[in-house]
Write a structure and sequence with these properties.
Blueprint lengths: L2 H11 L17 H6 L19 E2 L13 E7 L11 E3 L2 E6 L3 E6 L5 E6 L18 E3 L2 E5 L4 E6 L5 E6 L14 E3 L2 E5 L10 E6 L5 E6 L29 E3 L4 E5 L21 E5 L6 E6 L15 E7 L2 E9 L4 E6 L5 E6 L7 E4 L5 E3 L6 E2 L21 E3 L4 E8 L1 E2 L2 E2 L13 E2 L3 E2 L6 E7 L6 E7 L7 E4 L3 E5 L4 E6 L5 E6 L9 E5 L2 E9 L18 E7 L3
Parallel strand pairs: 1-34, 25-29
Antiparallel strand pairs: 2-40, 3-4, 4-5, 5-6, 7-8, 8-9, 9-10, 11-12, 12-13, 13-14, 15-16, 16-17, 17-18, 19-20, 20-21, 21-22, 23-24, 26-27, 27-32, 28-31, 29-30, 32-33, 34-35, 35-36, 36-37, 38-39, 39-40
Length: about 550
C-alpha cells in the first residue's frame, strides 16, 4: 500500500477524539466581532485577519527593537504528512488549526495543549490534484466551519469538536474538492470550490450557519442562454472549469463580496474554447445576500498558461482625482499587480511586479493584457521559456499582507518560467483535463528563485526587495511594531523591518514554510505563530531545496517572560 493510500485510510477511520468542553470561557463570535477584525488583539477570527484581508495586527509589543530576542514558546506537531498551509484562528484563548487530509485541532493558545481533535472521514478513492491541503477554517457563534477534500462543508461545535452538520457541496467523483478557508458574512458561511483541473464547473456557495441549508450558488462559467456564454466557442462551457478555491474579501459599507476565480479547462490547450472564457481568471463582485453579480473584471482572458486569479485580494483606500477610492488590489499570478475601483470594477492601474514577464508586453487602458503569441504553449513544449511559469508570480496557496501604517503591500514572489506544453485534451469525467503541462520549470537565467518585496499599491512601484535563492512561497503578516513576517522554502521564518526590508530575525523550522503566520495576545504576552511542513511548491520547481519532510508542525514564538 502506498503512503498516500495508507494516509487516506487513517483519515477515513478518524473521528472526533478527546472531545471535551474546554476550560476556557467562550463567547459567541458575533458579526460585530468579525467586523472589528484584528482590533481585538486577543483574537484572530478569520483567514485574512479582517474582511479586507490585510493580514495586519495593531500589536506592537514585539517590534523592531526587540524582535531579535523572540524565541519559541511552544510547538505542536501534527504528525500528518503533506503541506501545512493553514492560517489558524484564535478565539477566547483557543486556537483552531487545520492540517492536510482534513484534520482539525483545538489547542490552548497560550500553551499548545490539545483540547480536541477531529478527523473528517475521507473516501479511499479520493482524487487530489494539487496536494491534500486545507487552508483554514471559519468561526461564527459557537461553530467552526471547514471544507474537505471530498467537497463537503462541515460545521463543528467549537467547544467539543462534535459535528453539527455535514453537507456535500459537489461530487468528489466529478473532481470537486474544497480546500480554502470559508468566509462568514452575517448568517452565511461562504465557500468556493476547487476542481478546475478536472473540467468541473466552478461555483461559490452560501450556506446557513445554523442549518447548513444552501441559500445560493454562483456558477463561475455561464450556460447556454446566459450572459457570457458567447465567450466560449461551441459547447466548451460544459467543461469550462473556473474554480474558486481562494477566500474572498468583503466590503461592509457597500455590502459587496469579492471572490476570485481560476483557470478555464483544459488548462494549457485553448483550441476548443476560443474566446475570453468568462468568468474564469476574474474578480467577481457579488451581493452576499443573493449571489447576484454586480460586476466582473477578467485578469487573463482566454488563459492558456494556468494563471489562476485566486491569489489574495485586498481592499485598500487609494488616492484618486477627487479623494480616496476604495480599491480592490491583487498581485496576480500572471505577474501584474492590479488596482480596480471596488465600486464598479473599473481598471485603475496595473504594474509588472515580477522580474521576469514575457507572455504579455503590457496592459492596455482597460487593463487587458497585450499578449505576445510567441509565448503561448506549443505542442512539444515552447522553444523558449514563458514567464512567469504556471505557479506565478504569486500563487493562491499563500498570500501577501498590507500595512495601513506604511501603506505598503508585502508580497512573497516566485521567479520561475516554464517551457509550457500544449497537448491534445479529451474530457473524461473525474479525470485530469489539462491539455498539456508546465514543462521544464526554471528562470530565464537558470534556477528558479524568489524575493520578498514591498510595493506601493497606489503606484505599483517597488520600495524594497529581499532576495532568496529559492522561490518565496510562505504567507505574510504585518504588524504595528514595524515588522513584517514571512517564511521560506529553506525552512526559515523571518522578521523584516517593514520600512527598509532589513532582516531582523530568523528561525529554522526544519521544513518548507507554506502556512500563513498570525499574531495575538494572551494575558500580557504577544504570540506569533508559524506553520511549516511539506515541500509543496518547492519540490515542483527545479533547484528547490530537499525539505519535503513527512510531518508538519506549528511553532509559536514570543519574547522571554
Amino acid at each position: 500500500m502506498s503512503r498516500l493510500a495508507f494516509t487516506l485510510l487513517l483519515a477515513s477511520l478518524g473521528t472526533t477524539a478527546g472531545a471535551a468542553e474546554t476550560a476556557s470561557t467562550t463567547h459567541p463570535v458575533t458579526g460585530e466581532k468579525l467586523l472589528a477584525g484584528t482590533s481585538n488583539t486577543n483574537e484572530w477570527l478569520m483567514y485574512g485577519g479582517n474582511y479586507s484581508n490585510w493580514r495586519f495586527s495593531p500589536l506592537k509589543d514585539i517590534n523592531r527593537q526587540n524582535v531579535g530576542k523572540m524565541q519559541a514558546a511552544w510547538m505542536f506537531q501534527t504528525g500528518v504528512p503533506g503541506q501545512l498551509e493553514a492560517s489558524p484562528v484564535v478565539a477566547d484563548g483557543v486556537m483552531f488549526l487545520s492540517a492536510a487530509y482534513n484534520n482539525l485541532w483545538a489547542l490552548d493558545a497560550a500553551t499548545g495543549k490539545a483540547l480536541w481533535k477531529y478527523s473528517h472521514q475521507l473516501p479511499g478513492d479520493i482524487m487530489i490534484c494539487c496536494g491534500p491541503t486545507n487552508r483554514g477554517v471559519a468561526i461564527s457563534g459557537d461553530a467552526i466551519f471547514m471544507g474537505t477534500l471530498d467537497a463537503h462543508l462541515v460545521a463543528l461545535d467549537r467547544k467539543t469538536g462534535k459535528v453539527l452538520w455535514n453537507i456535500e457541496m459537489g461530487k468528489y467523483t466529478d473532481g470537486y474538492s474544497a480546500t480554502s478557508a470559508p468566509l462568514i458574512i452575517d448568517n452565511l458561511v461562504i465557500m468556493g470550490i476547487a476542481g478546475g483541473e478536472y473540467g468541473a464547473r466552478g461555483f461559490i456557495d452560501a450556506y446557513d450557519v445554523k442549518t447548513g441549508e444552501r441559500k445560493w450558488r454562483r456558477y463561475t462559467v455561464p450556460v447556454a442562454g446566459e450572459k457570457g456564454v458567447e465567450t466560449w466557442a461551441g459547447d466548451s462551457w460544459k467543461t469550462g472549469g473556473g474554480p474558486a478555491w481562494g477566500t474572498g474579501v468583503y466590503d461592509p459599507a457597500s455590502k459587496t463580496l469579492f471572490w476570485a476565480t481560476g483557470n478555464p479547462s483544459p488548462d494549457w490547450n485553448g483550441d476548443t474554447r476560443e474566446g475570453d472564457n468568462l468568468y474564469t481568471n476574474s474578480a467577481l463582485a457579488l451581493d452576499p445576500a443573493t449571489g447576484e453579480m454586480k460586476w466582473h473584471f477578467q485578469y487573463t482572458p482566454h488563459d492558456v498558461w494556468d494563471y489562476d486569479a485566486t491569489t489574495g485580494m485586498f481592499l485598500i483606500d487609494l488616492p484618486g482625482k477627487s479623494g480616496k477610492v476604495k480599491s480592490l488590489v491583487q498581485p496576480n499570478r500572471n505577474g501584474f499587480l492590479y488596482a480596480l475601483d471596488a465600486s464598479n470594477g473599473k481598471f485603475l492601474h496595473g504594474t509588472q511586479y515580477v522580474n521576469q514577464l514575457n507572455w504579455a508586453t503590457g496592459l492596455d487602458a482597460d487593463g487587458r493584457a497585450i499578449k505576445d503569441p510567441k509565448f503561448e504553449p506549443k505542442a512539444g513544449g515552447n522553444p523558449e521559456f514563458i514567464c512567469p511559469g504556471n505557479v506565478g508570480g504569486q500563487n493562491g496557496s499563500y498570500t501577501a499582507a498590507y500595512s495601513p501604517q506604511t501603506g505598503l503591500l508585502y508580497v512573497p514572489v516566485v521567479e520561475s518560467c516554464g517551457k509550457m506544453e500544449k497537448q491534445a485534451a479529451v474530457f473524461q469525467n473525474g479525470q485530469p483535463f489539462w491539455g498539456g503541462g508546465p514543462g521544464v520549470m526554471q528562470s530565464e537565467e537558470g534556477k528558479a528563485y524568489g524575493h520578498f518585496s514591498a510595493y506601493d499599491p497606489a503606484t505599483g512601484k517597488r520600495k524594497w526587495t529581499w532576495n532568496d535563492e529559492y522561490p518565496m512561497a510562505g504567507g505574510t503578516l504585518a504588524t504595528a511594531g514595524g515588522l513584517v513576517f514571512t517564511g521560506s522554502q529553506t525552512g526559515h521564518v523571518m522578521a523584516f523591518d517593514d520600512n527598509t526590508g532589513k532582516q531582523l530575525w530568523k528561525f529554522q523550522m526544519g521544513s518548507a514554510v507554506r502556512g500563513q503566520p498570525i499574531t495575538w495576545k494572551a494575558g500580557k504576552r504577544q504570540f506569533v505563530a508559524f506553520a511549516s511542513g511539506g515541500g509543496g511548491i518547492a519540490v515542483q520547481i527545479v533547484g528547490s531545496p530537499p525539505l519535503d519532510t513527512p510531518g508538519s508542525s506549528l511553532v509559536v514564538f514570543a519574547l522571554p517572560e
